[in-house]
């Protein structure tokens, strides 16, 4: 952990008021092998819940896909006036990572930080997704700030970071500092990232966790692991089964968090969040995690896995959002794509 001096910009917390949620209709069938069609109906349910409290911007490939979506959304009872369609060909649908972070200045003027997306430094099909951020800047009339550090355009995914809106950031060493696997910014140190976070997001304190959960092909995204639920409290996934590979990983992260003092002088509160039983597909463990929830204006959507711990996880998260409906979204099919609700969504600051 290191403290730095913030800039004039601030990265809002997810629970702050949104103007909209950005989604992209699923197109890449290989993301959900054998489950692509059911995913359409999961999306319909997500959009139905979100539009109760905010607008949804839905990115589609073309006019034909827009017409298909319009018909499906009518069937599930979505108010058509609450959905705005943008046509832009994309590679994949993971808006948390390919869409830009939105920041506010001291006058509450909104900008977006144009950071690079390169397919998690793993996949080749990302060049269409890389066009999304300048496209959104133009469509929304929102100025773009180029995310530059040491004369380099920084690669950063939204799932790699989590902010409390008051100057503290969570991230992991596995995702951002591994020198061999899925290297986003070769040669970057903790200081490089912390200086970048300070300059563009107003972050004065970066908390570095170690590794992410098993099965996460992003190599350590924090949004499957640990999330702020208010300015001084995080929920952290814990695994009680000592024989499970996640147990030691998560206990190490707990040790890092339990004695943290925030920059405002408050002690960080750490609340344990269970993990479901392992979800396996084709011999591969999938990143099934209740931490991948999404906070909208009126509802908190929590991924569920037909697991006995589903209700326990929803109950824990509900305690922190008494002014919102907290509900489960069936995610056994979604997680076959190696991500769930938070990975698919991206809030647009107001």
Structure description:
The chain has 350 residues and is an alpha/beta fold. It has one domain: L-arginine/glycine Amidinotransferase, Chain A (5-stranded Propeller). It has helices spanning 36-50, 63-75, 95-98, 132-140, 173-177, 190-201, 245-257, 310-318, 341-344, and strands at residues 2-3, 18-24, 55-60, 83-87, 102-104, 110-114, 144-146, 148-149, 152-153, 162-163, 168-172, 205-209, 226-230, 233-238, 269-274, 280-281, 284-285, 294-295, 299-304, 325-330, 346-349. It has a 4-stranded mixed beta sheet, sandwiched between helices. The chain has a 4-stranded mixed beta sheet with strand order 4-3-2-21. A 3-stranded mixed beta sheet has the order 5-6-7, with helices on one face. β19, α8 (310-318) and β20 form a beta-alpha-beta unit. The protein is globular and about 50 Å long. It starts with a strand and ends with a strand.
Number of helices: 9
The total of beta strands comes to 21
User: Which radius of gyration do the C-alpha atoms yield?
Assistant: 19 Å
What portion of residues is helical? 10-25%
Q: What string, H for helix and E for strand, traces the elements in order?
A: EEHEHEHEEHEEEEEHHEEEHEEEEEHEHE
CATH-defined fold name: L-arginine/glycine Amidinotransferase, Chain A
Briefly say what this structure is.
This protein is α/β, with parallel strands linked by helices. It has helices spanning 36-50, 63-75, 95-98, 132-140, 173-177, 190-201, 245-257, 310-318, 341-344; strands at residues 2-3, 18-24, 55-60, 83-87, 102-104, 110-114, 144-146, 148-149, 152-153, 162-163, 168-172, 205-209, 226-230, 233-238, 269-274, 280-281, 284-285, 294-295, 299-304, 325-330, 346-349.
